């Protein structure tokens, strides 16, 4: 599947009608999701036939993209009941058999139950800027504990040095695959600008 086809497909995914500020619910755009998944699939062969987890999956754009690219099974993990409902509606629309969702708090996930159970973990975690500092690292540590091969994640470029230090501490190889501009549309009432560009790193953490 070509990148444009994948992006066009992901534009059909329904997103939040009323995003929740405290959960930092900013949808991953079809363009960014498409670029992430296309690279994971074509450059690293970490989706097709693989068991994939999507942490903080929201309405499911990354999960659905992975399922469309023939993941063996993609399981989304999401705390918000409303997001899970939208996720399930999207799965019905796409008629995908190789996808599931678990409602749970990723930060309290009993990681021992899922230790090394997934080939690949993908995620666009909360950046930890809204009264939940450090949540991005909690997501990352959980993801690394669950993955057998690799974790793919988005993080603010400004946190790169900190993340590299953590990766070294955890004995994980970190590679910045791309630097992206995350176009954050005005989602909440306090947003004064129509959109803001945030510099974001698309990172691969390899566990082998």
TrEMBL record:
SUPFAM superfamilies: S-adenosyl-L-methionine-dependent methyltransferases (SSF53335). Residues 43-143 form the Methyltransferase small domain. It comes from the Eukaryota. Signal peptide: none annotated. PROSITE patterns: N6_MTASE (PS00092). Transmembrane segments: none annotated. One of its GO terms (molecular function) is rRNA (adenine-N6-)-methyltransferase activity. InterPro entries: DNA_methylase_N6_adenine_CS, rRNA_MeTrfase/Polyamine_Synth, SAM-dependent_MTases_sf, Small_mtfrase_dom. Belongs to the methyltransferase superfamily. PrmA family. This is Methyltransferase-like protein 5. The lineage of its organism: Eukaryota, Metazoa, Chordata, Craniata, Vertebrata.
């Amino acid at each position: 599947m070509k990148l444009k086809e994948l992006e066009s497909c992901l534009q059909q995914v329904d997103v939040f009608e009323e995003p929740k500020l405290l959960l930092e619910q900013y949808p991953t755009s079809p363009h960014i999701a498409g670029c992430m998944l296309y690279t994971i699939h074509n450059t690293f062969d970490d989706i097709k036939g693989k068991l994939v987890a999507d942490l903080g999956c929201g309405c499911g754009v990354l999960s659905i993209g992975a399922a469309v690219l023939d993941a063996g099974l993609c399981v989304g993990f999401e705390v918000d009941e409303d997001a899970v409902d939208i996720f399930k509606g999207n799965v019905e629309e796409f008629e995908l058999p190789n996808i599931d969702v678990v409602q749970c708090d990723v930060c309290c996930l009993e990681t021992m139950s899922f230790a090394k159970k997934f080939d690949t973990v993908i995620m666009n975690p909360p950046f930890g800027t809204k009264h939940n500092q450090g949540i991005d690292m909690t997501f990352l540590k959980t993801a690394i504990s669950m993955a057998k091969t690799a974790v793919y994640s988005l993080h603010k470029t400004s946190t790169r040095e900190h993340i590299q230090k953590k990766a070294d501490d955890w004995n994980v190889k970190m590679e910045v695959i791309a630097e992206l501009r995350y176009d954050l549309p005005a989602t909440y009432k306090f947003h004064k600008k129509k959109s803001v560009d945030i510099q974001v790193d698309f990172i691969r953490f390899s566990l082998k």
